[in-house]
Amino acid sequence: MKKFFDKYPDLYIVLAIFVLFVIGFWSSYIFVFVSTPIGVINTNHLSDWVQWMGSFTGGVIGGILAYIGIKITLKNQRKEIQYENKRKALPYMNVKSGGEYDYKNKYIQLDFNFTKESKKRERKDIEDTARTAISIENVGMRELYDLYIGDIESTYFSADHEIYSVTPILYCNKPFVINLFFYEKGSYDSDEFPERYNTWGSDIVFKFYFRDCYDNWYRQKISISFQHKIIAEVEHEKRALEINYVKSEIKSIPEEISENDLPWKNGKSLCYL
């Protein structure tokens, strides 16, 4: 019972007032309308007691309504203040080209499953793997914390893991560059796909998970477009895939989510970069 009232203190106060009201009302009723051996109440004062009972009842009801009204007003004001604070502190993700490749950057590995046959093959083990760099930027109002990338959606590219932990903090307008490695799956020359040597455009959709300075979690979706082409009849030890960053598109604004809905807390694999 104590835990219940600790959780709902307003209910405890209203219940206490109600109990006092019932005790006072029935005490007055017994004194006024019920014959008692004490003989405290004189019938000449009956109207005074009825008036007192009305005033008492009205005062209690008015007090309860005033208390509830004040609580609702304060609660709404608190919600408005919290909303305004969250709005001013909301991080906002954007992605741009990361410029030249730098081996010091953290990286994510992706498989290029361009044909049905390639999905069953192993990666080509070559030094000159296709790669590009992307710049992750927080263009919001305040810094963000615990940035994760995951739930990658793509027609031709797949990742080793479902979720990647990127950085513990990302300040406003201070880009964080990561490398994307695109691994070829063997040779595509013999695959049954006549258009395999054409120049293609493909999108990779990333979901970003992060929290603001008030410990609220958000999810945002961004699509990155790439242009890629397979060079025909390349030796197995050399790179056949050419790929370039084209553009990025914000698919959704930051959406607040519950901490219980974070994917790595619901069974999805997590990798720390």
Task: Describe the protein's topology.
Blueprint lengths: L1 H6 L1 H25 L12 H43 L4 E5 L8 E7 L17 E9 L5 E11 L2 E3 L3 E8 L5 E9 L15 E12 L5 E14 L10 E10 L4 E3 L12 E3 L1
Parallel strand pairs: 2-7, 6-12
Antiparallel strand pairs: 1-3, 2-5, 3-7, 4-6, 4-8, 8-9, 9-10, 9-11
Number of strands: 12
Mean pLDDT over the residues: 86
Task: Compute the number of structural domains.
Answer: 2
What is the H-and-E element order? HHHEEEEEEEEEEEE
Please indicate the percent range of residues in DSSP E strands (runs of 2 or more): 25-35%
What is the makeup of the main sheet?
7 strands, mixed
In DSSP terms, counting alpha (H) and pi (I) runs of 4 or more, how many helices?
A: 3
Spans of at least 5 consecutive residues with low confidence: none
User: What radius of gyration results from the CA coordinates?
Assistant: 34 Å
Query: What structural class do you assign from the helix and strand content?
Result: alpha+beta
Distance between the termini: 48 Å
Helix fraction by DSSP (H/I, runs of at least 4)? 25-40%
Please state the overall shape, judged from the principal axes of the Cα atoms: rod-shaped
Give a description of the structure.
The structure is a single chain. The protein is α+β, with helices and mostly antiparallel strands. The protein has helices spanning 2-7, 9-33, 46-88, and strands at 93-97, 106-112, 130-138, 144-154, 157-159, 163-170, 176-184, 200-211, 217-230, 241-250, 255-257, 270-272. The chain has 2 domains: 2-88, no CATH class; 93-272. Strands 4, 6, 8, 9, 10, 11 and 12 form a 7-stranded mixed sheet that branches. A hairpin with a 5-residue loop joins strand 8 and strand 9 (217-230). Helix 2 packs antiparallel against helix 3 (46-88). The chain starts with a helix and ends with a strand.
